[in-house]
Amino acid sequence: MLIKIKNIFKFKNLYLLTILIPINYFKNLINDGFFNNIFSVNYFNLGSTFLIFLYFYFIANLVRDLLFLDNKSFSIVVYLTSFFIFDYITLFVHQEFTFQVNFIIVNTIWFLAFFIKKGNKKTLFIISLILFALDFIF
After folding, report:
1. Does residue 92 sit in the same domain as residue 68?
2. 59 with 94, same domain?
3. Rounded to whole angstroms, how far apart are CA atoms 103 and 109?
């Protein structure tokens, strides 16, 4: 029995196994009707995803300029980490803050920092419009 298991992992059989896995994957996709659903467009999800990406793009630019960071991805990490830090600190002070309250307070602190730094007013206005649009959608 042990010899048969070792024979499966020979190079020829492993090559055959790696071919069978994608074939089985596509067979299951066709049988489950996935291709019928993949071509239907959900405009609500598409629009909200586009707005979220725009929001993070503009926030990354502002945070990068405010904190003199090198790249946008680290700016997004700093921005998102600020929510965690604020939530962790306020947990000891007031345990009944909801995420919406934390979101408003942290974003207000960030916007005040952007205004004090004299950030790009046009970008701040666009970010505000995106937040209002997302609030209207959700």
Report:
1. yes
2. yes
3. 10
pLDDT digits (tens, 9 = 90+) for 22-32: 787 777 777 76
Tokens coding 115: 């205004």
Q: Rounded to two decimals, what is the model's pTM?
A: 0.67
Residue among 120, 138, 135 nearest 60 (CA) = 120
The span from the CA of 70 to the CA of 60, in Å, is 11
Task: Kindly compute the dihedral angle of the four CA atoms of residues 93, 99, 104, 108, in this order, to the nearest 10 degrees.
Answer: 60
- Residue ranges making up the domain that contains 7: 2-38
Quickly tell me which residue has 């666009």 as its tokens: 126
Looking at the structure, tell me whether residues 49 and 94 fall in a common domain: yes
